[in-house]
Amino acid sequence: MPIQINTSVKGKEYPPYRVSVERGKIKEFARAIGDLSPMYLDDTVAKAGPWGDIIAPPTFPITFRDEGADTGALLRDLGVDIGRILHGEQEFEHFKPVRPGQTYLCRGRIVDIYEKAGKSGPMAFVVRETTVTDSDNDIVALMRQTTVVRL
Amino acid sequence: MKYAKVYAEDVQVGSEMPPLVKPPIQQIQLTRYAGASGDFNPIHQDAAFAKAAGMGDVFAHGMLSMGFVAQSVTDWFGAGTVRRLGVRFAALVRLGDVVTCRGKVVAKRPGKDGDGPYLVDLELWAENQKGEKVITGKATAALISRG
């Protein structure tokens, strides 16, 4: 029997949270991917570059999560087990570089939930959007994440 | 200091991205990526958990492969050039898989107001050693003019 997910969380906005970007976390992230660009890793080379410092790789904002919140909040809201989820799609829009030492404000909400028949059975798609703004209130990045739930 | 790896004049519609071939996926990289990203879903670490969840064995975080795809663009165009990157995770990447990222330019247009950097649209994909697509996607990068 397929499981039921709680579709009533569509439209739900999560409490905004702040994230401070640490220099070492940018480097750790780039190294984990195996991307050794000096613009992510080398303070001296990056200092002479266009931003005057290292910047974060394009997918780094995926690390921006609400450390103060229960990590299982979304899954609990949906009523699904972590073993049932897959990452379906991911999109980033970048407006300003993400820099070390900056604090960003993140606002996330569930923009859509829909169900579809997949190759291996019924699936639900949960689309979350997170906007990232800086201390000037400029939008820095927008993330759109589609999680697939195997029902 | 002017910094650019590739200028707008250097690419045209149809230009192919130099393929980025990543080393075979190892468990240690998945563990390292979990720590770096904060995604500790046991499905990427614990074979027994992955098996019980019906996935056969552990598999790579989709975001690790997306990181490879992002790297393929920035290796070509330079860090900080990506304005938009969107992917669909088409197949699971397993331990031992060799991921190769490929892409090509599908459009090139002047930036807003005609004086900003050129915007270059890319079609992107990543494939495993069997030639199966594991990611399909699109990106837009901003390239400055040589002039």
Provide a descriptive summary of the structure in words.
- The complex is a heterodimer of chains A (151) and B (147).
- With 151 residues, chain A is of the alpha+beta class.
- Chain A is built from four helices and five strands.
- A five-stranded antiparallel beta sheet of chain A has the order 1-3-4-5-2, with no helix packed on it.
- In chain A, strand 3 and strand 4 form a beta hairpin.
- Chain A has helices at 23-33, 38-41, 43-47, 73-78; strands at 17-20, 85-94, 103-118, 121-133, 139-150.
- Chain A is elongated and about 60 Å long.
- By secondary structure, chain B is α+β, with helices and mostly antiparallel strands.
- Helix content of chain B is 22%, strand content 28%.
- Chain B has three helices and five strands.
- Chain B has a five-stranded antiparallel beta sheet with strand order 1-3-4-5-2, with helices on one face.
Descriptors:
heterodimer, A: 151 residues, alpha+beta, Thiol Ester Dehydrase, Chain A, 4 helices, 36% strand, B: 147 residues, 2 domains, five-stranded antiparallel sheet, 5 strands, 22% helix, elongated
Q: Low-confidence parts of chain A, pLDDT < 50 over ≥5 residues?
A: none
**Sheet of most strands of chain B:** 5 strands, antiparallel
Please name the CATH topology of the domain at 7-21 and 64-150 in chain A.
Answer: Thiol Ester Dehydrase, Chain A
CATH class of the largest domain in chain B: Alpha Beta
What structural class results from the helix and strand content of chain B? alpha+beta
CATH architecture of the domain at 7-21 and 64-150 in chain A: Roll
Please render the helix and strand layout as text:
The complex is a heterodimer of chains A (151) and B (147).
Chain A: E1 17-20, H1 23-33, H2 38-41, H3 43-47, H4 73-78, E2 85-94, E3 103-118, E4 121-133, E5 139-150
Antiparallel strand pairs in A: 1-3, 2-5, 3-4, 4-5
Chain B: E1 20-21, H1 27-37, H2 47-52, H3 62-77, E2 82-89, E3 100-109, E4 118-127, E5 133-143
Antiparallel strand pairs in B: 1-3, 2-5, 3-4, 4-5
